[in-house]
Write the structure tokens for this entry.
Amino acid sequence: MKSAASRHVDAAKPADAMSSQKSTRRRVAASALVWALLLTAPYWLPLTGGYTDLGSRVLVFSLAALGLNLLLGFTGGLSFGHAAYFGLGAYGTGLMLKFVTHSTPLALLAGVALGGLGATLFGPVTVRRRGIYFAMITIAIGQMFYFVAVRWNSLTGGEDGLTGFERTNIHFGHAILNLHNSTIFYYFTLFFFAIGCAVVWSVLRSPLGHTFVAIRENQKRLRFLGVSVGFYLWIAFAISGFIAALAGALYALLNNFTSPEDLNWVLSGDFVIICVLGGMRTFWGPLVGSVIYVVVQDYLSSITVNWMSFIGAIFVLAVLFFPWGLLGFFQRRIQK
């Protein structure tokens, strides 16, 4: 006969399975709702005043924060220099369109390659340190690229930024994808946002992603077990950099312009704020944080020059009352 403890365990198994199924259904339903809203955004957003372009900007910043969140929220590395790879992606795309080719796909590919390879090359230097030293190295590397862009006037345009290029239509035989149309460009951006989400989701569901989380939770124990922590941090940094570069390339296409400000540490801080606002340890947190940040910035900047003060106040309140971010807060409430 089974003992009382065994009967208690057997009785608990169906309850745990049912709870897991409910949690899975909630996640699927939430994801379906998010994609439904994103797919229909051009139809329920106002069609005047550039609101479709604002939606594209939300997706671009969400993609950049999604890449950073892989490093910050799931691996535990605070980077204040991710704008470097975002900006390299933007400059790579802009320079390619201006001097080499008028092909948007090739320019996009060049921007992603430039920013991603930059993160891959500087990753081993960066991941040698942790904590505040890690953050300081990322700032130093980012500012190095920033000052190169400012000083190299003949190539980058200096402080005035890089102009003289624009996104071009994509030809599929007799069909033409008109990227000059704001709605079509929104779906073009959404397509690459979906690719970024698929990459991050696949990584997080894989043993590699579980290793990233283990590094965040207890790096010393992993070193004791013989895991090469630095190598996995480098992988996380490189993947994060490629996604940030993709976002930067799309940002250059959105504005038909890029400047040294796209490389500055201030923009890196904006990406960190977006992750914290939405929820660092949640998958959709960067999207939620980006919606809040971009919409509030767009509204406040139209009524006051001191809009950054309000953004700072919102950030402080979020840290004080929602330390896990807005999405993290609601998830914990639902679980309780």
Notes: The first strand starts at residue 170 and ends at 172. The CA atoms of residues 23 and 52 lie 33 Å apart. The chain has a mean pLDDT of 89.
